[in-house]
C-alpha cells in the first residue's frame, strides 16, 4: 500500500505492510481490502481508511513496549497495526459480536491484544496509565476518563464532533508538567461514539 508523503514513521509503514487488512473485512469485500477506503464491517460500523489508521498511529508516537488503549475495536485492524508496532494493546468495544469476531481474527493471526466488551467512555482504569490512547469513534467532547488515564508525555488521538457531520481529529498531549496541550490534525468522518449499548439518536 502506498501512502502520501506525510506518513514518514517507518514503524507505522512496516506495521501496515505486515498486517493483512483483508482478514479484517467481510468475505465479500476481500478484494476491496487493499484500497484506501473505509469499508462496512456490519452492525452499522466501519473499518477505517488505511491512510487514517496510519495518520492516527503515527500521531500517537508509540513504540515497542508502550501500553496503548484503543476505544472502538471494530474489526480489530487498528489494534493489529499497534500490536505489529510492538505495543501492548488494550481495546474496548461496545458491540459484543464485533469484539468476539475481532478477538478471533487477532488470535488467529497471532496478535496479542486484550479486548474488553463495554462502554469505552470510562477507559480501562485497571491498566492505566497508557503511553497512548486512540479512539476510533467520535464523541461530542473527549471523555475525561481518557485524559485522566494518559501517562506523562502520552497522547490521546481522538475524532471529536457531531454524529454524521464534519469532525476534527485532535491530539491531546499530557506534558511532563501534567498540563494538557492540543493540536488539530485533520478533518475526519467517524462513526458516532455511542453510550450504553447502541443508544438510538
Ligand atoms: N478501530 C476499528 C474501527 C471501528 S469503527 C477498526 O480498525 O476496525 C468504531 C467502533 O467503535 C465500532 O465498532 C463501534 O461499535 C465502537 N464504539 C462506538 N462507541 C463506543 C463506545 N462508547 N465504547 C466502545 N466502543 C465504541
What does this structure look like?
The chain has a single domain (10-188), classed as Rossmann fold (3-Layer(aba) Sandwich), CATH 3.40.50.150. 23% of the residues lie in helices and 28% in strands. It contains five helices and nine strands, in the order H-E-E-H-E-H-E-H-E-E-H-E-E-E. Strands 5-4-3-6-7-8-9 form a seven-stranded mixed β-sheet. A two-stranded antiparallel ribbon has the order 1-2. Strand 3 (67-71), helix 3 (77-84) and strand 4 (88-93) form a beta-alpha-beta unit. Helix 1 packs across helix 2 and helix 1 (10-18) packs across helix 3 (77-84). The radius of gyration is 15 Å and the shape is globular. S-adenosyl-L-homocysteine (SAH) binds at residues 45-48, 71-72, 74-75, 77-78, 92-95, 98, 119-121, 136-137, 191, 193-195.
Provide a concise account of the structure shown.
It is built from five helices and nine strands. The protein has 201 residues and is α/β, with parallel strands linked by helices. It has a single domain, classed as Rossmann fold.
- Mean pLDDT across all amino acids: 95
CATH domain class? Alpha Beta
The percentage helix is 10-25%
- Percent strand equals 25-35%
What is the CATH topology?
A: Rossmann fold
Instruction: Output the helix-strand order.
Output: HEEHEHEHEEHEEE
Please provide the count of β strands.
Answer: 9
Indicate the topology:
Elements: H1 10-18, E1 39-42, E2 45-47, H2 50-60, E3 67-71, H3 77-84, E4 88-93, H4 96-109, E5 113-117, E6 130-135, H5 144-148, E7 150-160, E8 167-174, E9 180-188
Helix pairs in contact: 1-2, 1-3
The protein binds S-adenosyl-L-homocysteine.
The site of S-adenosyl-L-homocysteine has 24 residues, from strand 2, helix 3 and strand 4.
Amino acid at each position: 500500500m502506498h501512502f502520501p508523503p506525510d506518513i514518514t514513521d517507518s514503524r507505522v509503514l512496516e506495521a501496515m505492510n505486515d498486517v493483512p487488512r483483508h482478514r479484517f473485512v467481510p468475505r465479500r469485500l476481500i478484494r476491496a481490502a487493499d484500497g484506501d477506503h473505509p469499508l462496512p464491517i456490519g452492525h452499522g460500523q466501519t473499518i477505517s481508511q488505511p491512510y487514517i489508521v496510519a495518520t492516527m498511529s503515527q500521531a500517537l508516537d508509540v513504540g515497542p513496549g508502550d501500553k496503548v488503549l484503543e476505544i472502538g475495536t471494530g474489526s480489530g485492524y487498528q489494534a493489529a497495526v499497534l500490536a505489529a508496532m510492538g505495543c501492548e494493546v488494550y481495546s474496548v468495544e461496545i458491540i459484543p459480536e464485533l469484539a468476539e469476531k475481532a478477538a478471533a481474527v487477532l488470535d488467529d493471526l497471532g496478535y496479542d491484544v486484550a479486548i474488553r466488551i463495554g462502554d469505552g467512555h470510562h477507559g480501562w482504569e485497571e491498566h492505566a496509565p497508557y503511553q497512548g490512547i486512540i479512539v476510533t469513534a467520535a464523541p461530542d467532547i473527549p471523555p475525561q476518563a481518557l485524559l485522566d488515564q494518559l501517562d506523562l508525555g502520552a497522547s490521546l488521538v481522538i475524532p471529536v464532533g457531531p454524529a454524521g457531520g464534519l469532525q476534527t481529529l485532535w491530539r491531546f498531549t499530557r506534558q511532563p508538567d501534567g498540563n494538557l496541550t492540543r493540536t488539530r490534525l485533520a478533518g475526519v468522518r467517524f462513526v458516532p461514539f455511542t453510550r450504553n449499548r447502541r443508544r438510538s439518536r
